[in-house]
Amino acid sequence: MTMLQIDNLCLDIHGTEILHDISLSVGPGEILAVTGESGSGKSLTALAALQLLPQGATMRGQITLADRPLSDLTEAELCARRGRDIGMVFQEPMTALNPVQTIGAQVAETVRQHHHISRRAARLRAEETLVRVGLSPDRCPPDRYPHQLSGGQRQRVVIAIAIVLGPQVLVADEPTTALDVTTQAQILQLLARLAREDGMGLMLITHDLAVVAQHADRIAVMRHGAIVETGTARAVLSNPQHAYTQSLLRAATRRVELPPRTATTPLLSVQNLSRSYRMPRRRLLESPQLVQAVHDVSFDIQRGERVGLVGESGCGKSTLTRAILGLEPLQSGRVTLAGTAISPDKHVIRAARRHMQVVFQDPFGSFNPRHKVRRLICEPLHLLDTAPSENERNRMVDEALFDVGLTSSDADRYIHEFSGGQRQRIAIARALLIKPDLVIFDEAVSALDVSVRRRILDLIALLSSRHGLTYLFISHDLSVVRSVTDRVMVMQAGKIVEEGSTHNVFTNPRHPYTRKLVAAVPHLDTTELPH
Amino acid sequence: MQRYIVKRLGSLLFSLLVASVVIFVVIEIAPGDPAAFMLGINAQPDTLAALRAELGLDAPKIQRYFAWIGGMLSGDFGTSYTYRTPVSDMVADRIAVSIPLAVFALLLSVLIAIPAGILAAAKRNKSADLAVLGATQMGVAVPNFWFAMMLVLVFAIKWRWFPAGGFPGWEDGLWPAIRALTLPAIALALPQAAILTRVMRSALLDVLGEDYMRTARAKGLSRRQTLWRHGLRNAMIPVLTIVGLQFSFLFAGTIIIEQVFYLPGLGRLIFQSISNRDLIVVESVVMLVVFGVIVINFVVDLAYAAVDPRLRDRT
């Protein structure tokens, strides 16, 4: 028996073929992982299962939900099934909830939409479901609004909305991509548990093979709108047939080769850095609470060293980064770069920028869309005291583009013509243009697909051996930090709780928090797969 | 929430204080002697002295400021120099026209704009949307006094449904007064409704693209239910801003329409007292208008918090 059956699904959007000949099925209590890079058609397949396709889409083939073909149903009948027989969890928990309704009301709405029961009864049902997904009323009462919840909690609410009526099929589209590693592990466990307990078919869409390895029964690999390989998880992971699956597996397991470290003279020094924020007062006459974002943090980075900083969201990584960049007034402590103290003073920052450049997370938001790549890359040149001549400048841009694997003709294109991975290459080219002493990679690969991410990490390793880079690599993703750093610092609640050579910290973590983080990392170990 | 209200109230009081100081300084202190200004260059010295005594210009400036504020707080706005009647009586008569007119016009504007904006957004790029957008283009481009004249031509002169101008007062009953205000309110409301429709449409279109609308569809809500239950309240936030601004404008900025319909409103009172150099009236009426606008902004701020729970936790 199958819960959801997709046969020969083809999909056009405004005449362009997006999906061809997709056939999938999900049985009761079964977890089907659909994987592939962004743009491979995974999400559209999911939306097709709910018949929530974008405008201009035309579909052929058949989708059967609980033995009833969806094409036979009217829109009203489809509405009666969505939320009741099939639920969906989306990628972005920060925006998937209505900001002006309480979470309890949003869960209860699914119930009242399909059953004629009283408001009170629906609310009780919603409360039970919230408890089931791990949101107990004493810690996260149903009258909270979404903005009062963390990303992981919000994703639990979205899951509660989807499962409150016990649907036969749950479609989860990249449910953990936006979350950090421990939250990701918890959400995946929750989804797997719900599927097994309720006998619910789970279609889990993800670009990260390691994420699905531990939970999936079967895997379907998609590329360019078609399924290239499908089979049991064990078979696909241990003995991939298709070349594309093999390359995906390689990308997920291969380590980057870092060149050996060279000189050792101190470059960046952070001493006893602290920064706290005042929280808004909750009541009128209550004294405001202080949150210690960074608490007495000290470390050094030597020239030529590649250091990682890991921790969950909210651990103080961002505040620390901002302090190093001179964007944050220090309450106590001292940051020195090559002997000069950093402070939020305009002149100090300008001088410091010559020695220190940043690559940010979002390859889509960190460029001005109106400028061509040449101008974007040249931005740091204003930091130099003597502006280079135009010829010199063009030569620098060509060299920088070549360095990151692009060509000089790319300099005259606009940023929207590039993919996410290419944009991140351009961001790296921009950061390296003035040959800074220190580069800060602030979640620089977190928004990228597995294989694109791997190529960017290869590029960083290549540039390290070519130019002897010194960098601080900040990420919530431990597997990334592991592959491109010599030394790693683990941050929790504003403090550095563990520090040491990357190899030692990962193979033999001492602090309980580090152990928890390392354990939560999804990893591809084919010997531990379910049979 | 408490904290939000207290903060908004504090900001309201502060704005009032600053506004009163600015008005006082500009009118009573800055351009030399108000009495000489009011009487003009040919004034007799003894008339001037009498007016100075009447205005209390001999007292120190700080004392005059507090006397003015204290008077306003107790309802004593001074006496008009031109008409020799208490300013508070004059203002009371005018407000009896201006506030109902502003409320009437705003009500019409909202009643037209919200459904039209929803219709346009729901039928995006279809003929209904294009028709609404075309109409709003006209509404924004055509000045309201032209609408006023057209309305008078059609509904007052040709069909005689409404009076062409004047205001009978509220003593003769509700209906004649409302009839007299109907055409001016429509003329005022049309351009406002055009702007508000566009804001409503674009706010709703923004909201329709949000992820939580997709979540709502996945729950099994129909397109229409999604729009009404999840779209509207989120789209109201920018709409409220514009409604607040429009009410402020309608409260005192309706002088042209008052002129066309010969209505004794606040706008005309300000205009006449400026022409007559009646600074006592100008000062008090301007302060009153500022008070009204600031209070409206306060109400809009409270409405924001009612619509958007995120605001209640912030600040």
Overview of the molecule:
The complex is a heterodimer of chains A (531) and B (315). Chain A is of the alpha/beta class and 531 residues long. Chain A has 2 domains: 250 residues, Rossmann fold (3-Layer(aba) Sandwich), CATH 3.40.50; 246 residues, Rossmann fold (3-Layer(aba) Sandwich), CATH 3.40.50.300. Chain A has 18 helices and 20 strands. In chain A, α9 crosses α15. The longest helix of chain A has 18 residues. Chain A is globular and about 70 Å long. Chain A starts with a strand and ends in an 11-residue tail after the last helix. Chain B has 315 residues and is mainly alpha-helical. Helix content of chain B is 78%, strand content 0%. In chain B, α1 packs antiparallel against α13 and α9 runs antiparallel to α10. Chain B has a single domain, classed as MetI-like fold, CATH 1.10.3720. At the A-B interface, α2, α3 and α5 of A face α1, α9, α10 and α14 of B.
Task: Walk me through the topology.
The complex is a heterodimer of chains A (531) and B (315).
Chain A: E1 4-13, E2 16-26, E3 31-35, H1 42-50, E4 57-65, E5 68-69, H2 75-81, E6 86-89, H3 103-114, H4 119-132, H5 151-163, E7 169-173, H6 181-198, E8 201-206, H7 209-213, E9 218-223, E10 226-232, H8 233-238, H9 243-253, E11 266-278, E12 290-302, E13 306-310, H10 317-324, E14 332-337, E15 340-341, H11 346-355, E16 356-359, H12 373-378, H13 390-403, H14 420-432, E17 438-442, H15 450-467, E18 471-475, H16 478-484, E19 487-492, E20 495-501, H17 502-507, H18 512-520
Parallel strand pairs in A: 3-8, 3-9, 6-7, 7-8, 13-18, 13-19, 16-17, 17-18
Antiparallel strand pairs in A: 1-2, 1-4, 4-5, 9-10, 11-12, 11-14, 14-15, 19-20
Helix pairs in contact in A: 3-4, 3-5, 4-5, 5-6, 9-15, 13-14
Chain B: H1 2-29, H2 34-39, H3 45-55, H4 61-73, H5 87-122, H6 127-141, H7 144-158, H8 174-208, H9 211-218, H10 223-252, H11 255-260, H12 266-275, H13 279-307, H14 309-313
Helix pairs in contact in B: 1-13, 5-6, 5-8, 5-10, 6-8, 7-8, 8-10, 9-10, 10-13, 12-13
